[in-house]
Amino acid sequence: MAREPEPQDETWQETDWTPETRAAFRRKKRGKNFALLAVLIGFVVVVYIVAIVRMGANTPGAN
Q: Is 15 helix (H, G, I), strand (E, B) or coil?
């Protein structure tokens, strides 16, 4: 049986999910998700560039 979550502290309140609050929540969450996507893509690009540079340094005649 599913139970109601217990409040974490006395300031916890249940949120009324009106269409306006739901839209605001989604906008805020979408912005954070895009920021995280940008950070992850940046990390992948840096790792890729480092890998290419390191492979290039190991080719014969590179020195």
A: coil
Residue with tokens 């309140």: 13
Q: Are 21 and 15 in contact (CB under 8 A)?
A: yes
For residues 39, 43, 48, 51, the Cα torsion angle rounded to the nearest 10 degrees is: 170
The pair phi, psi for residue 6, each rounded to 5°, is -75, 140
pTM of the entire predicted model = 0.61
Contact 62, 56 (CB under 8 A): yes
Tokens of 18: 């009106």
Residue at 61: amino acid letter: G
Are residues 57 and 63 in contact, defined by beta-carbon separation less than 8 angstroms? no
What is the tens place of the pLDDT at every residue in 8-19?
Answer: 666 666 778 899
